[in-house]
Amino acid sequence: MAERIDGKAVAAEVVEKVRTAADALRAKTGVQTGLAVVIVGEDPASQVYVASKGRKAKECGFHSVEHALPEDTSEDDLVALIERLNADPAIHGILVQLPLPKHIDEGRIIQLIDPDKDVDGFHFINVGKLGTGEVATAFVPCTPAGSMLLIERVLGRDLSGKTAVVVGRSNIVGKPMFNLLLAANATVTVAHSRTADLPALCRTADILVAAVGRPQMIKGDWIKPGAVVIDVGINRIPAPERGEGKTRLVGDVDFDGAEKVAGAITPVPGGVGPMTIAMLMANSVVSAYRAAG
Ligand code: GUN
């Protein structure tokens, strides 16, 4: 049976380090790390994520502000808010929860965020830095950064000689994951919905990262024996066995099948999810240190 990678425990270690670092910065310079989270509309999943980001920021001793705007907020009003946060010296990190309502140009909003406050790592400047190896001054997207920390716990920092397959090519996970694995010397393939014979490709992976958003798509017999499996998916599915109308969270990997074959695997929930929030806190305190000089 595979080792279960305890993302909750690793995330708690990261958060503890962030809290200590934020306290030290405040004691030395008077600067309190400030994180602003912006949400537009009433998507229930987004509301849950935003609430937990705010809670964690307070746990870290941050100045935490949440801007919850109605669904019909105009793009101009959102632009004005971002410009205000960019100019606010008490704010070191700005996170705009995605997706935004259809009438707002998401790309435009992301590119308006000051790259030095872009703790999501979505701005072209930060994407470009990651792609060219300027990681020391970049912000790396939180989910891939957290996934790398979990991989590091099992395999160490140097992935020389390892084959990695990333399933999913999103800007938020797949593409930055490719860059991080490559920077760690893995040999990386990015697969997606148009890939031929995905099961066979997955079977070549010493490290398999699943980020497709399809519940339990990746089966146990797609996995190379002993592989490290990182399941980024968070999907809510009906769970009639728990009672009428009940649901449960599952990943993109069929966990029960996969854990019989893999060497190590992240559970859902309790794997990558908590790491995403922990890395957001880490990016925020790093931003505050940079601002404090
Ligand atoms: N929506 C889903 N994942 C993310 C994320 O990492 N950052 C933001 N801002 N929105 C998201």
Q: Tell me the CATH topology of the largest domain.
A: Rossmann fold
Strand order of the largest sheet: 1-11-8-7-5-6
CATH class of the largest domain: Alpha Beta
Bin the helical content: 40-55%
Approximately what portion of the residues adopt beta-strand conformation?
Answer: 15-25%
Write the layout of secondary structure elements.
Elements: E1 3-4, H1 7-29, E2 34-40, H2 44-59, E3 63-69, H3 75-87, E4 93-96, H4 106-112, H5 124-131, H6 142-155, E5 163-167, H7 174-183, E6 187-191, H8 198-202, E7 207-210, E8 228-231, E9 235-238, E10 247-250, H9 255-258, E11 264-265, H10 272-292
Parallel strand pairs: 1-11, 2-3, 2-4, 5-6, 5-7, 7-8, 8-11
Antiparallel strand pairs: 9-10
Helix pairs in contact: 1-10, 2-10, 6-7, 6-10
The chain binds guanine.
The site of guanine has 8 residues, from strand 4 and helix 6.
Describe this structure in words.
41% of the residues lie in helices and 16% in strands. The chain is of the alpha/beta class and 293 residues long. The chain has two domains: 30-115, Rossmann fold, CATH 3.40.50; 142-274, NAD(P)-binding Rossmann-like Domain (Rossmann fold, 3-Layer(aba) Sandwich), CATH 3.40.50. The strands form three sheets. Strands 1-11-8-7-5-6 form a six-stranded parallel sheet. Helix 1 runs parallel beside helix 10 (272-292) and helix 6 (142-155) packs across helix 10 (272-292). The N and C termini lie far apart (48 Å). The mean pLDDT is 98. The structure holds guanine. Guanine is lined by residues 95-98, 120, 142-143, 172.
